[in-house]
Amino acid sequence: MTSSLAVVVAAAVVGALGGLLVPRLVAALPEPARDSADGDGKTTYVDLAARPGLSLASAGAAALACGLAAVAVGWSPALPMWVYLGVVGVALGYVDWCTRLLPTRLIAPSYAVVGVCAVLASALTGDWSALLGALFGWVLAGGLYFLLWFVYPRGMGYGDVRLSGVLGIALGWLGMAELVLGIYAGFLLGAVVGGGLALAKVVDRRRYAFGPFMLAGALVGALWGETAARWYGGG
Q: Are 217 and 89 in contact (CB under 8 A)?
């Protein structure tokens, strides 16, 4: 993880500017048809977007996420996809935390954006094996989450399945270690942090938003995947 301070600061600034737009992104989302098993059925996206201090909080969160992404990948052609995920991830995490829904309107175009970024990154670096890794990450992460949803749909929303593919592409482009750690970290954070919040009665222990933990886990994978691989391999 060799990246200059200038790159980290630049990514954080871009993230902060993007984070300021999160309330607009949220307000523009079409309201879903919520049933008793999906979402709270009360809070609208317009309500969420109008909450005081959201712009500054989103800017800070996106700046942190994008800055950490720059620490992970450095001045790399892969950085744009991670900066994009840093901003959109804040919007997704916020909405999911408040409503237990991951909007398809944000996830669907993310496949196109992250996919194009992955292709361009491989074209610029000449590393086409990284693009194969991205495709493998899509299949592995998406397939795993789909299987979990298929086996026990009440334990996981289909929005998590959709999001897993996007994160799998970004992680898979970086490498197998980043992909495996990113997926594992999402589950670990969901179990430990989510379980702790459930015990503290901050969230419903039977069903709480998993998307924020998936996003945080992906960032952990990008940051420490290579280090974990060296540690595991004794290198």
A: no
Q: 42 burial class (0-12, 13-18, 19+ CB within 10 angstroms)?
A: exposed
| Residue in the block written with tokens 């179990």 | 191
Query: pLDDT value at position 187?
Result: 96
Residue among 183, 165, 162 at smallest CA distance from 225: 183
3-state secondary structure of 70: helix
pLDDT of 40-80, one tens digit each?
A: 557 799 999 999 999 999 999 999 999 999 999 999 999 99
Distances in whole angstroms, Cα of residue 230 to Cα of each of 13, 71, 119, 164 = 32, 18, 27, 25
3-state SS, residue 128: helix
Distance CA 7, CA 90 (A): 20
- pTM listed for this prediction: 0.92
For residues 180-197, b (16+ Cβ closer than 10 Å) or e, as one string? Answer: bbbbebbbebbeeebeee
